[in-house]
Amino acid sequence: MKIKFSILYLVSLALLSGCTGSPNEAALSSTSKPQSTAKVQPSPFGIPTQPASSAPENETVTEQPEVNDAETVLKEYADAFIEKRFDDLKPLIYPNNFNITADELVQRIKENDFKKSISYSEYMITSITDYDETHKMAKLLVKPSDGSTALEDTVGLVFSDNSWKVDLALIVRTESNVVNISSNNNEVTVTKVTKVTKLNGYEFNIEYKNNLSDNRLVIGWMNNSFALLKTEKGQLTEQLRKANVGPQATGSVIATFITQEKASVKNLIIQGVHIADSNNLPVPGEDKFDINIPLQ
Question: What are phi and psi for residue 63, nearest 5 degrees?
């Protein structure tokens, strides 16, 4: 029997890119977001991952008796995608995490396929693991038709409306909290924290206000700003991209953590915030500081 190699991840990257402007590629899975430094592997099935700021909040996933098989749905999706039967994808996909309809999501897949002009010949499902009762994570290998090296792909499966569907965003839930958390010297105040729990980690969108009257605030100067996420099982660290905000203005920064381990999060620390002049250069004599954000 001929082994099949998959393309799900690439398509999901490209779709999210079209939906939200985030920098990802192709038609089924996901891993990228604005101002996030998590590395994104090209995904055949590809839409980029939904940014925390635009993912639907508290999406309810139905818990009902299973009437179809998750692996069967995944195979049907992969077969249709490889054969470019894109309209057949509509009943198989879960578009809610992109804030668009199934028709619109399939249109994104078609547009991405046209732009990439890449064909895939085979796929192989290497694993399907349970996340909870209504979410699974699948890993695949996808082989391009030109004979180049097979690509790794990760996609989600969600049980909704009494059936399993393919979720290209990998989102489990989204939670937003209005807060009032200031740095030690009141240079900055965090006003809102949006947490996206994903099958492969966590994403945080931190909205804040610069309380300074004359100076800017810069995150990521000389690539020396990091986000630390402390959980019940340890600590995760990710480098942050550069972001800056003017005096008395508001801004946001996204921190993405890739992990397969489920754990309760305790607090998030943004390290290396600089006070800067009008040219976004650190002000001499002003020390960089951290922002500690409790999450419990």
Answer: -105, 105
